[in-house]
Amino acid sequence: MKTMEKCVLAVVLLCCVLQMGEFEPWNSHCDCVTKRFGGDSAGHAIKCWDCRSDNDPKCGDPFDNSTLAITDCQQAPELEHLKGVRPTMCRKIRQKVHGEWRYFRSCAYMGEPGIEGDERFCLMRTGSYNIFMEYCTCNSKDGCNSAGIHRLGVMGALCGTLVTAFVAHFLRH
Q1: How far apart are CA 41 and CA 107, in angstroms?
Q2: Is the pLDDT assigned to residue 25 strictly greater than 60?
Q3: Are 94 and 134 in contact (CB under 8 A)?
Q4: Burial per residue of 3-29, b for 16 or more beta-carbon CB atoms within 10 angstroms, e otherwise
Q5: Kind and range of the H or E element at 5?
Q6: Where are the beta strands (DSSP E) in 42-99?
Q7: What is the pTM (predicted TM-score) of this model?
Q8: CA triplet 85, 89, 94: central angle to 5 degrees?
């Protein structure tokens, strides 16, 4: 393999690893190790955004966390109606009532991440009188309740472009 091909392959692999979220150099710890090998053995609790768009418009979508502090769910109070239950996930609720959108982000005490464990999907319900609700839960990383629907980020676009260029290069030779 030529030097140029090795460099392109290294960049492609790095982009794909960054896109998958396995390596986050800006984070002080690696959540993927904790979640895959022993869960909460190190005492790590998930941290979630906690806000309401009716109190803070930045809580809506697009989400702007510049004025918010992330909440350690281990420090969240025990709920009176859920004695002994601790939050293990983050949640984001998006609801439309009489044409007005509202957003709620917080720690989640019950349920499972996403739909059947897939965080890309949310529970959606509609009702009469123009009512719509979307309930999303996640525990893949701290602050996972910040995003809306998963979108292709800059790293994903870069990774896709580099993979395409790499394949095209090998098909020509």
Answers
A1: 20
A2: no
A3: yes
A4: eeeeebeeebeebbebbeeeeeeeeee
A5: helix 3-20
A6: 47-48, 51-52, 71-72, 89-97
A7: 0.61
A8: 115
